[in-house]
């Protein structure tokens, strides 16, 4: 990598500041989330959370966690102008405010020739300062969205995955095999974080819809 950044290996992380339509009913640009629980067919609202996201990218291994965050739930990462043998990493993070909460992740990864051949490994590091990671997915970039399905909880190797005022990280390592039959092209991934309050809720292993 030069002082101006990688020449042919361009990995662009774009923050979407506006909140998405996640399972906690995000509204407005500040990603205020109303947590819900269904009991006996009735929906109970148990408070509100704030969510901000950030990302850092690098050649080689995933970099250190981001130091700046934007209010929102969604991060878009594009892969452009790659050649066989290229590698890189993305560290995405979600930071909750307004109370202790567990983080969730889902993804959208449209299939393209490049996405079908990009090999990715995804792991959670909760909180971002944790010393170990928990594996989430290994496979092609195009298969990531289907693998995460309705969302997976970002678990931790430490005693508690409830976060209060600190960030949880997702580390994505990628490589384009040296024998890949594509040179150039584009691929993209949209990562969406969600949060669920720890208070008065039971952790769910998968699926973030109440």
Number of domains: 1
Rg over alpha carbons:
17 Å
Mean pLDDT: 75
What structural class results from the helix and strand content?
A: mainly beta
Q: What general outline do the C-alpha atoms trace?
A: elongated
The strand count comes to 12
Main β-sheet, in a few words?
7 strands, antiparallel
Query: Which strand-content bin applies to the residues?
Result: over 45%
Helix content: under 10%
Question: What order do the helices and strands follow?
Answer: EEEEEEEHEEHEEE
Give the SSE layout.
Blueprint: E1 10-16, E2 32-39, E3 42-59, E4 70-71, E5 74-80, E6 87-97, E7 101-108, H1 113-117, E8 119-125, E9 134-140, H2 144-148, E10 152-153, E11 167-175, E12 186-197
Antiparallel strand pairs: 1-5, 2-3, 3-4, 3-6, 5-12, 6-11, 7-10, 7-12, 8-9, 8-11
Walk me through this protein's architecture.
The chain is mostly beta strands and 210 residues long. It has one domain (10-197). Helices cover 5% and strands 47% of the residues. The chain has helices at 113-117, 144-148; strands spanning 10-16, 32-39, 42-59, 70-71, 74-80, 87-97, 101-108, 119-125, 134-140, 152-153, 167-175, 186-197. Strands 2, 3, 4, 6, 8, 9 and 11 form a seven-stranded antiparallel sheet that branches. It is elongated, with a radius of gyration of 17 Å. Residues 1-46 have low confidence and may be disordered.
